[in-house]
Amino acid sequence: MVTQTWFYDAILYIYALSLLFYFADFSNPNRSAKRMGTGLLLFVWVLQTIYLVYSLTSHLSLSAFSMFETLFIFGWLLVTVSLAMSRFFRIELFVFFVNVFGFAMLALNIFSKPGLAPTLSRWNVTDELLFIHITLAVTGYAAFVVSAVFSGMYLFLHRKLKEKKWTQRMQRLPSLEKMDHYALVSVVIGAPLLLLSLSLGIVWIALQGDYRLFFDPKVLNSWFVLLAYVFYMFQRLLLKAPGNRLAVWNLAAFAITLLNFVLTNYYSTFHQWS
Q1: Cα maximum dimension of the chain
Q2: Where is the Cytochrome c assembly protein domain (predicted)?
Q3: CB count in 10 Å sphere of residue 237
């Protein structure tokens, strides 16, 4: 059973990584990112197929299939359809959102399976789900920190250039174009990780059965954080806003992130860490 748990965990982590590459390609068309996303998603499909073949051969009849296997087949079909859409129609945004839903449903299916043993013996299943949830969220927050630092450096260099005050320190900074690009790349990494973390948070709340937690200040503000960064990417990619305005908005989004990380800890009913 522990081996089986590692198998499920591998599917979830590879699934999350493939979605990260798909989102990166959608935000800034990149053939290498798309190939990586497709390759990882194909690997997820292979792992799911291996499990389904094992289930089919180990059951004497289809009537012995449980709800777990039925929903697993449904998730496998979503991945199959999305791979076909990616191959023949190349609608990356469709592939991304279909698989965000498939990822959340797969996590709910796996972690609600009766008798599933967690990877660590002293954990329970919800602990393992929370570990993945927290890992994705913290990694996303780290990406937002990196993005905010680049935006702060951008504003510093932009102001110095505008005032025509060139110093030796400025020679050690990347160009404005590069800092703007690095800030965007960091957000492109952080935003889908936060989205996947939130989807697992929804799964955890569903397993707990206390639906009032959907309206917890921490949960609501996390969605607000995600929307702030989505709006940043909307301005950057579609409106082609100037770099200094984007940097200001990125720092404002990071301020909301800090508010979410620090202040809502005192008001949240289940995110109180201190």
Answers
A1: 79
A2: 68-270
A3: 14
